[in-house]
Amino acid sequence: MNITKKVILTPVVFLLSGFIFAFLDNGIEIERFDQIIQPIFFAVILTSDILLPSFRKNLIIFSCCLLVLMILIYLLQNLMIADWIGRLGFGILFITIFSYTPEIIKRGYLEKF
Amino acid sequence: MSQKLVFFLLSILITISWFKSGLYYGGAEVGISPYYNPARYLNIQQFIWWADVAPGTLVPQFISAVPLYFILSLLQNLLSPLMLQALVFFCLLFLMGYGMYLFTLSYIGKDKVFYAVIAGLFYMFNSYMLVEVWHRFLYGGFFLAAFLPILALFWKLWIQKGNFVHLVILLLVSLISSYMFGNLTSFIALWIAFFLLTLAEAVFPWQGRINLVRVTKWFVIGLTFFILTNLWWLIPVAKVSTQVLPNQHSSEDNISTLVNISKQTILPYILQYANPFYLFYTQELGSIYKNTIFLILPWIPAIVIFLGLLVVLKNKKLAVLGLFYLITIIIAKGAANPFGYPYIWGFMNTFFIGVIRNPFEKLGVLLPFFSSTLFVIGLEYIFLYTTRRFGKFISRLAICIILISILIFAFPMFTGRVFNKPDYPLLVQVPDTYKQADNWFKKQKDIEGNILHLPFTNNDVVTYNWEHGYHGVEVNEILFTSLPSITRNVGIKRVDDTLRSLAFIFNKPFLNNEQILNLLQSFNVSYIVFHKDMRWDDVSTYGKNIKLNDLFEIENTLNSLDFLENKASFGSLIIYKIKDSFYKPKIIFSNNYDLVDAGESNIMQTLTFSKINSQITAMGEEKDNVLWENSSQVLIFPRTILYTWEYSKEVLDSMLNKSIIDPNDDALPFNQLKLAKQRLFLHSGELLSETLIDKIMSANNLILELNKYRINQNIPPQSLLKSYDDQINAIFTSGFDGSSIQRILRSLLAKVFTLHLYVLERFYNSGDTDNHVFAKELYDRLNTYLINNKVLPKYFSVGKETNGQSQRRVHSFYLPKSASYELLITDNSMFPLYPDIISKLHINLDGNPLSVTPSSRDDFTHLTEVELDKGVHEISYVMYPSSNLVSNLNEFKLEGVSQLVNNQILKFTANPQVGSAATMVLDKLNGGDIYEISFEALTDNADKFYIEMTEDTEGDNVVDNCTKTTCYPLELVSTSKDWQRVSFVTTPLNIATRKANLRLLLPLNQFSTLTFTVQIRNLQINRLMDNNLILRKKLSNDSLVSSPSGYLTSFKKLSPVKYEGRIKLDKPSFMFFKETFNPGWKLELFKDNDKFKIDKHFLGNLYGNTYYIDKTGEYNFKLEFEPQKNVNLGIMVAGFGWVGILIGFVYSVLKTKQ
Question: Chain A contact for B315, CB < 8 A?
């Protein structure tokens, strides 16, 4: 993908996915600012998944780390923070793995992350 | 073969362990085990009308259980209930393991048998199966979990190869397992799995359009045959359940359940398949699950699964399973974050989706279904990796540790503890006396009618003191097979209200022999079985008013009734028979009855007014007045009761001003709404009501803004009025009707919108600009919304020239005909509490004052005779408090370290050792009463104070510090040095209550070393005038006793949904058919070759069917429940489906041979 395409696509993908993730998390009405932090984060992830595919492996590792951290914090009985970290980790993993879908459809599997 | 043996032996061992006690499992929602008497279950459930749950109820969804009951009924004579249940549980366990083994094998290849076996074991013993399937103890869940892998395997084979053999096997297996479709969500879960498997075949990897078309073709054919061959249960469920479901759960209920359940399906729980409610909150499987090691254990397989997920992405055949697993997590976690909102959106917009309001329970089985394969892939990866890095010994050790961790976590599966319910064990052994009693009934000749089981708790759950206990759905219709049993409520509000009378009439204060006989006859009761083995004082089952179940009282009553004979006793069961001369058959004829519109009255009030006559109620508007013309009297109870406030202009202005100045004054309606949101709806999951309150609060701000303009005599911008218009429209057009806010906060909303109307009215009267005209429009629109949504009555005006404020009780009546009616007021025994009551009532009829000349009768007062037109009318009176019921504080009995100071102040002291209380007896109460209790309190350190009101219908007066009885915790500002005003209104008393103990309580303060004191003065307890108004029209001076006007000359029950016989009518008559009212019950008469459809169908005796037959002479008749024909239609179409699939099968075989 050339630079011009990337420059054009980045805001488009970011904004569009931001709206979609905001709806998936909170619906149409956003009441508090903190409700859009996670959707923005997910929009950044999806944008980078699409525009920086080489970065995806790191994102998967990062999401797995978050999920492990979730387990540790859960075992330390801090459920609220565990949930917060868990949904972030799971969300990143979900988005990133599904960003491989075209490749999986094409080949049936991934050659490499 | 050896793999089969593994699952076979394991299933046998587990089954033996579960049943080693020699008892079987029952209780909870499934009731007594269906294995106790499957033939009886089969007899009942083959019809969608359950006549044996008298007086009859419509249950379409359980028709799908018929194949299972048919198979079990064949085995019934060979095996005991225990053996039957053990056999079924064994089969289910085996199918779970072996089915998943085969399914996994189809993915990972036949060279990996060991891993496929592990997948089967993981599927059997993961924490979802442990808690959500076996411990949850829902048979639908058992069957879905057991049959899902095998069904999915055959679907996968069908989609891959298009071989009809696979489809035929799939359909046969689905027929055997159709029990699971009793819950429609099983159907949804199954088809999510089928759809995903099809998707995998169609596009993962993409093999071109031809493959897509091929797979789509097989999918469509498979789906078509699946639906066709399942139409025998789908048609009745689709056609009838759609009428039943909305009455059971509203959309808001569904969303509330979803949101609250989703708090338990957050990622830290769902990724380990844990249901925190059972594992951690109630700890029903043992407190060990809160132990750190047990908190760690479920994460071991969870990590292996995620490892497997990453590994499979590089595997051509399996990559898609990883994607599906992630999708399944999203599906099963419901509305929990992330990506949880589409569920809520779907629930708001599609009522049907509400069936999956508990997604983890209903669809969560897809998690272990997809993850079992991922688990073994992860396991294999670990094995290979550790072998490479550390050698075989370490790798084997690692695998063993992982597998053992799963088995340790699932240890209750091996011990039988999986069914452990600490409060009510699931082990059941029905006492032999029940069999003996049932046999006794079987020996009686020509018995008919219904068996009434007492105590009747008007509940569907019961607790028995059997040797091993029993707690679950009441199942006397299964234990007593000769006649239908009236044993529990039937889930239809009108009928349950009427059945509730059976909970009252055998006990004081409603004890009345004539009334008892009348009700028994009305419900076609021929026998009573009195259960002395009922744990009648189980408050958690029956609610606080357990005294109504008092066995001693009920037995005394039964023994004193001269129309009953004590016929037999079997252990704790006593059988009474209604003497033949008093028994009335299932169908009777009468043309002497009361025409009753029961409205919102309680059943005992309706029966009291109707004395002992029959009652008929019109369903909807009656066109030709046939009911009116033939009735003895017309009794009309209010259909709606609304409470409104009449404020003077000064009070309204003051409230509006204060709302601006002091936004924290809790006495103001606008601020009360804010508090109500925080207390009732915030985080409760009732999102609709929460949103509606926000919108109303926005409208409040706009109306305050408009009021400012009005006061300053400025013209507001039109945008303000436009915004207000938008807000009001948004409130009343987005689900307000039926919402919780409408139900719970109706009277507060009446106050709030009275202020709105006042501001609008004052504004539009102050000028004639476009804005003023628009304000008038807004006033009219808001007023219409409020009337249509039953917030305010039709006849209501704001800002009256009244003094201060007063509350009105507005009764809305629907009158079937223009006539002169008597206006009556109930419960006149309370009148001595209200000095000058009649002059202060200020009765209004349709907004105009109505003068009354009261005259007292037995238990009501005749107020006046009034001419009223047909249609809706509103009659209201001013509610005002009674005189103070506490005339002297000396009446209180002091406990602990409480003191009476100067006869003026009650002083309560509490420290870590002792608390204090004061109790007084309130007698001569009236059931259903509400009271306003107010006082001034001075506190030192204490921030909570309690008022208990223990009614005589509740358990013995146990001093339990507000844990079991009706109790009102009151909050005090502990730092305040001033007297604080406290006031609250009690909930209505039970309608049987006549006496209560009022107890003021400051309990000992266990968590502080400080001494707490609370002083109370100016205590007022006032009964709120809450008596019903009733309209009555006497039409006949005949004695109010039903007289026969026709006869049954023959009567035959062909099935629970079809009756035939012959009748002889002396004159046009009303035929009472004592089965729960349902428009599906159709009556046809035959004479010679003529057929007459009787379409004048009414509600009889407030629960049953009544038909008006405008004929005389002899006729053959047929009574049939027509919706059962849907089942016959379904069976016929399903039959065609089976023929079709067989043709396809034969064609496919022939084609293969060619």
Answer: yes
